[in-house]
Amino acid sequence: MDWGMKNRLARILRPADGHTVMLAVDHGYFLGPISRLERPAETIEPLLPHADALMPARGVVRNCIEAAADIPIVLRVSGGNSIVGEDLSKEDITTSVEEAIRLNASAMALSIYVGGKYEHQTLVNLSRLVDEGNRYGIPVLAVTAVGKELAKRDARYLGLACRIAAELGASFVKTYYCENFEKVANGSLVPLVIAGGPKLDTVYDAFRIAHEAMSAGAAGVDFGRNIWQAENPVATVRAVRAIVHDEADAKAAGELYDELVGGSKKKK
Ligand code: R5P
Fold it and tell me: Tell me, what's the pLDDT at 146?
């Protein structure tokens, strides 16, 4: 691997432990202004000191993030779909590698829809993006998207999708946590980060998932809604950080969260 590629990856997956706490804020590219991301700058700013990397599309980068911010950007470069459109899997590359370089991106992120109507298109897109990224030393994060079919999130399916992403050259893969996640991690070839998905009932559920994923071989999280839609986003990300970087279990993370929000009373 060339120096530039290694250097960019090391900004995301921290060299001390190879782990990362990524903050996903790219949802607007197909969901529009969802709750708490109506004004992304206000949501993102207090969380930046506690994240290792940020995952936005270019609109949020240019309009909502200070250019002086010291945060690696994993730039969402696929899209062209919407929640009200024909099929979520109908994605293409929407941002050029030159644009990623202009924005000083540390990595480029693109969704693949294994088993989806436009599976072939998204997998070929991934391969092309990897070729472009390799030319300039920019790693690619493949996101194993499932569209509206959340039921597909089992170890057999996610293991298949993650391995295909790695075989096509992704440097790391974002996927969902599932039962028997060890199987997904074992066959993935490259580091995995997990998405949080729609907001869970409590932050303690998010801590449990984060801890179980890390114990099963994940390299980190790329959480969005379960952080910034939580009642106390800063306390939540700090507790997740303790799991990812300090080997805290879900209980210890919950206690840290309680302490940070100022009492033992459990809050959502
Ligand atoms: C979806 O494709 C987007 O990449 C989101 O960034 C992703 O789902 C992660 O965010 P969340 O933790 O809210 O699911």
Answer: 87
Q: What is the pLDDT of residue 150?
A: 62
Q: Provide the pLDDT for residue 264.
A: 47
90 annotated active-site: no
For residue 52, give its domain range: 3-12+20-191
Q: Which of 90, 174, 183, 265 is catalytic?
A: 174
Edge to edge, what strands does the sheet with 53-55 contain?
53-55, 20-24, 220-223, 192-195, 172-176, 140-144, 107-112, 74-76
Answer yes or no: is 54 within a domain.
yes
- For the chain, the domain total comes to 1
- The answer to whether position 211 is within a domain reads no
Q: Which residue stretches of the chain have pLDDT < 70?
A: 150-151, 263-268
Domain-located, residue 256: no
pTM to 2 decimals?
0.95
Burial status of residue 64 (CB atoms within 10 A of its CB: 0-12, 13-18, 19 or more): middle
Q: Provide the token pair at 53.
A: 């990397």
CATH code, 85? 3.20.20.70
Atom of ligand 1 nearest to the CA of 55: 6
Distance of CA 100 to the CA centre of its chain: 17
pLDDT reported for residue 263: 61
